[in-house]
């Protein structure tokens, strides 16, 4: 798989996994199938003619849905709480906690640089070897993950959520016929070449919600049958940040139906029989971040970021990620703690401003050392 290998660098140490039990009572409603985002088809739909400007990066595949995205859909309730129904999703949450689903769009490595084999360890492909959040539960080798039903050799429209947006390239791989869902995914389980790549594809919607996504049309590999994983790598061209994801699919003549989501869904691998319905469109724990320039001088500038709880549940902590222009460094920062690696700046709440009720906001400020003028930064926020 030399085409995917780059010069290895030592990965940062992983924070200890936070293990919790999934809480709450499972809902009683019945629902056997979910159409994840859209019905797939051979033609370019009207939405694919719309192009949004390149803006700001967090996201995950929606069609075919990634494990984190479909598990979020599976467990989302009217209140915004996440109570898993699917047994694989419940096992993942028991291992990684519900933060892994409130931040379903954050399976990333800030230092990824598009690297794959030799950088992300075998058995950790679905979690991307993530170090900011614990996504290790989504590496579990199981055959009951939510699954998207597809037809080998068909043309489909891929959709990839843009919770935040950035230019870059999406590479999609497929597992070999020898792969088995009963063992953790390794690089040797993937075909050596991506079956499709898309660079700076068109997008629709405004970042920061489920209805904003990139989309492109591609032909699925022919000759495939049964269970497989479509593995997607999103490599940003304006940063080292790289996103990794596993989408469980079954080639059985389907047209994009999703099973294994919601209570009472039966065997996730069964072909869909009932009309799909969506769970409530409730964001749960969500935060946003907005930047403003306060002052500037010859050697730098002062900025301020406002963090707002825009969800439907209180949050107990937040983390803001900012990509600084090349060469800029933080001089000082207050009302939060930060780490900087190259252009990537990560700010977490201080002890006194992490808890935010619905609609509440807080701010943190900082100074930047630079020879240029104040920059228009585009921070994005995650709950912790």
Shape: globular
Give the name of the CATH superfamily of the largest domain: chitin-binding protein cbp21
Mean pLDDT: 81
CATH fold node name of the largest domain:
Coagulation Factor XIII, Chain A, domain 1
Which radius of gyration do the C-alpha atoms yield?
20 Å
How far apart the termini lie comes to 35 Å
Given this structure, which CATH class of the largest domain is correct?
Mainly Beta
Largest sheet: 8 strands, mixed
- Number of discrete helical segments: 3
β-strand amount: 25-35%
The helix/strand series, from N terminus to C terminus, equals: EEHHHEEEEEEEEEEEEEEEEEE
Task: Quickly count the domains.
Answer: 2
Helix fraction, binned, reads under 10%
Low-confidence stretches: 1-56, 266-281
Query: Structural class, from helix and strand content?
Result: mainly beta
Keywords: Monooxygenase, Oxidoreductase, Signal
GO molecular function: hydrolase activity, hydrolyzing O-glycosyl compounds; monooxygenase activity; polysaccharide binding
InterPro entries: CBD2, CBM2/CBM3_carb-bd_dom_sf, CBM2_carb-bd_dom_sf, Cellulose/chitin-bd_N, GlcNAc_Chitin_IntDeg, Ig_E-set
Protein name: Chitin-binding protein
Q: Layout of SSEs?
A:
Blueprint: E1 33-35, E2 61-63, H1 67-75, H2 87-96, H3 99-102, E3 108-109, E4 147-150, E5 155-161, E6 168-174, E7 196-199, E8 203-204, E9 213-219, E10 226-236, E11 242-251, E12 257-259, E13 287-297, E14 300-309, E15 318-323, E16 329-334, E17 336-341, E18 344-349, E19 361-369, E20 380-383
Parallel strand pairs: 4-11
Antiparallel strand pairs: 1-12, 2-5, 3-11, 4-12, 5-9, 6-7, 6-10, 8-9, 10-11, 13-14, 14-19, 15-18, 15-20, 16-19, 17-18
Biased composition (Pro residues): 269-282
Protein name: Chitin-binding protein
Biased composition (Gly residues): 254-265
């Amino acid at each position: 798989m030399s085409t995917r290998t780059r010069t290895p660098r030592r990965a940062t140490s992983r924070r200890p996994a936070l293990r919790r039990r999934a809480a709450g009572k499972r809902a009683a409603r019945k629902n056997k199938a979910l159409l994840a985002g859209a019905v797939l088809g051979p033609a370019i739909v009207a939405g694919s003619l719309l192009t949004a400007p390149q803006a700001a990066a967090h996201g995950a595949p929606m069609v075919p849905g990634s494990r984190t995205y479909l598990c979020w859909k599976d467990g989302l309730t009217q209140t915004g709480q996440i109570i898993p129904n699917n047994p694989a999703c419940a096992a993942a949450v028991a291992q990684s906690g519900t933060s892994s689903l409130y931040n379903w769009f954050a399976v990333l490595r800030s230092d990824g640089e598009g690297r794959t084999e030799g950088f992300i360890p075998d058995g950790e492909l679905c979690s991307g070897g993530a170090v900011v959040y614990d996504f290790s539960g989504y590496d579990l080798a199981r055959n009951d993950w939510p699954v998207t039903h597809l037809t080998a050799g068909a043309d489909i429209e891929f959709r990839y959520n843009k919770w935040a947006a950035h230019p870059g390239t999406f590479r999609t791989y497929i597992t070999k016929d020898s792969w088995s869902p009963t063992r953790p995914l390794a690089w040797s389980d993937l075909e050596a070449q991506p079956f499709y790549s898309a660079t700076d594809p068109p997008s629709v919607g405004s970042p920061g919600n489920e209805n904003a996504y990139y989309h492109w049309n591609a032909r699925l590999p022919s000759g495939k049958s049964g269970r497989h994983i479509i593995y997607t790598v999103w490599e940003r061209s304006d940063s080292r940040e790289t996103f990794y994801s596993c989408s469980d699919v079954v080639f059985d003549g389907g047209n994009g139906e999703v099973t294994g989501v919601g209570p009472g869904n039966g065997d996730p691998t069964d072909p869909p029989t009932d009309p799909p319905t969506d769970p409530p469109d409730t964001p749960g724990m969500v935060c946003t971040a907005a930047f403003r320039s306060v002052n500037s001088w010859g050697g730098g500038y002062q900025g301020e970021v406002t963090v707002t709880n825009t969800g439907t549940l209180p949050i107990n902590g937040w983390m803001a990620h900012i990509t600084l222009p090349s060469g800029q460094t933080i001089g000082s920062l207050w009302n939060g703690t930060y780490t900087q690696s190259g252009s990537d700046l990560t700010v977490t709440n201080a002890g006194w401003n992490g808890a935010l009720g619905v609609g509440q906001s807080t701010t943190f400020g900082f100074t930047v050392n630079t020879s240029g003028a104040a920059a228009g930064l585009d921070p994005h926020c995650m709950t912790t």
